[in-house]
Design a protein that fits this description.
Blueprint: E1 2-4, H1 27-37, H2 53-59, E2 62-63, E3 81-86, E4 92-97, H3 110-124, H4 127-142, H5 150-156
């Protein structure tokens, strides 16, 4: 993944398809949204969200490139994920990951699961549920752990 924040050329075959929320599976849109907001969540895939001018402007600067080094069968379906962000001042930020968050080799922590639960509850916009989300988590954490108990339910959250 190469992101050049100076380049305004964006190949037409990668333009955001606004029909039927085409942006939700569009890597350039996902990268741009995460860069601009610090996260990617369900509210980023509404008709209104996928047409945000600021996100579209950054997404036009994202290039998805093939890198044979990333195709390691031992890493699973996604292989290695690399990102290279080129900044206007000429510097660049680079990183890679072999196992995305949630992969059995890079599991989500209990704290991250709790945060995601709270984020999902907030998204419902249910005032009563939002007010009791912390209490609900405390209650769930109070149940015994082990096979066939609430820990099986919690592992699915």
């Amino acid at each position: 993944m190469n992101l050049d924040l100076d380049e305004d050329v964006f190949p037409s075959q990668f333009r955001l398809d606004r029909r039927a929320r085409g942006g939700m599976f569009f890597i350039a849109y996902n990268i741009a949204t995460a860069l601009l907001t610090g996260d990617l969540f369900t509210n980023d895939f509404t008709e209104e969200a996928i047409c945000r001018a600021d996100v579209l402007a950054v997404s036009r600067k994202v290039q998805s490139l093939h890198d044979p080094e990333c195709e390691d069968p031992k890493l699973g379906a996604h292989g290695r994920i690399k990102i290279d962000i080129h900044l206007r001042d000429g510097s660049s930020l680079k990183d890679s990951i072999d196992y995305p968050k949630g992969n059995p080799k890079n599991p989500t922590s209990p704290e991250e699961i709790d945060q995601k639960f709270i984020q999902c509850v907030r998204h419902t916009q249910d005032t009563k549920l939002n007010a009791s989300a912390g209490d609900l988590l405390s209650l769930l954490h109070g149940f015994p752990s082990g096979r066939g108990t609430i820990s099986d339910l919690m592992s699915l959250l």
